[in-house]
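Bit of a strange request maybe. I'm writing a small parser for structure token strings and I need a real example to test against, not something I typed by hand. Could someone generate the tokens for this chain?
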Amino acid sequence: MMQLSLFDIPHIKEKRQSGIFSADDFGVQTVRLNLEKKLIDITVISNDFNRKTVSYQLSKNDCLHRWLKYKEGFSADLVKRLLSEFDINSGDTVLDPFIGSGTTALVCMMHGINSIGFDILPMSKISIDAKQSVFDYDIAELKQLIIAMENLSVPDDHASTTDCITITEGAYPKKTEREISFFTKWNMNSDFSDKAKNLITLCILNSLEKVSYTSKDGQFLRWDHRSKKMLQAAEYRKKSGKNPLVIRLDKGELPTLKKVLLDELKSVFSDILLIRKDTSHPPVSDITFVEGSALFELPKLKDKTINGVITSPPYCNRYDYTRTYALELAYLGITDAKIKQLRQDLLSCTVENKPKLEYLHNHYASLGKQHDFEKILKIVQSNRALEEVNGALTERNTNGDINNKGVLRMVNGYFTELTFIYAEIYRLCKPGAKVAFVNDNVRYGGEVIPVDFISTDLAEQIGFKPVKIYSLMQQKGNSSQQMAKFGRVPLRKSITIWEKS
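Reply from user aminoacidic:
Good idea to test on real output. This should exercise your parser:
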């Protein structure tokens, strides 16, 4: 087997001390320590691999990849490196079960490599449809579109407002709501092509946060102190005799939607011209995208059809993407009821997620794969590291160290569902195919959960051969609450590399 050489970096050799996984040696950590001892020789720290590489930070400056402001994505540069190291060539097929903004698929497309991807957030389809049409847009039409938009103005008698859900109520000034409604209807009723209309929809999605009183911040939206929501909260606290809220967000004068929308469209147009100038022959490849959960879509695919996998699942960090992207979801017509269902359909990564085992059981049974379901579930239930983590978290909860008992259900559900993903990927991969998962380790109630090591352990039980665990030099910290109570423990962000032998 060819040795991976993605980065010229040293292996980790430092000796771990007692209490590294369980603060104050509160819980049993024997299995985690033994697992680290087993995998430490394939764990390497990178000097030129950093948080920009495995996040959206590099992609936001890249042509094409910046068309959707998707902070959870990774960079195109990382995908290019992995495609090269995995020896994936034109005509091969790469899978991304959590496709997001489509970075993996688009890099593959530009290299003539086919791709398959899944995502349940509706922004993904709009983004991928827009990006994969980069060689198909009518340049003359886009010029006309920009001119038409420059000459638009919202009529004084246009009184419609934009849709909202409970989370986003009052997110825009009234005049901005009218603008959103006007430009949306104009786009819908215009005579431009469907591709051009979809591109405008994507540009509107990218404009919403900039023209709103909100700002994406981890697992929720922060609100400007001038927003109706914050003004009402301040008035309520004043009447109740409570101390005023400390609100630090002030976005200054909010721009008009027309200005932001034109900026977005002109930026995209420049990217299209640049990409076409630098690409003499449009690559020939297919992007197969399905708007749905990989948990339920992967079992439908045929065996041994995939040459490699490059992906990043939602992290086990309690981030709720239905809240982070609430503005975009509300704009696309997702109601409060649909938001709740969408939240449940996501891979379990929030305390609100409920177990999906019954649904998975029924799904596998409907496909005639009951045996596969039982086999995968047995792997989950027999994994000693996960059993240790579940036990430690239960004890921490009893001790009052867990601030939300839903964390216990979330962590177990997270690894259970990922194991089904890993098992299906193994089935789909051709012999010799390599798999890359970008993920974060986490800590709850003083218990470190080595997501990369546990995932690699589960993958090995399934049949994969562990190859490398690339770890960032810059490791993340813990929440201020945990550091105050348990001290600071550095947590890895990693790329786990496995191979189907």
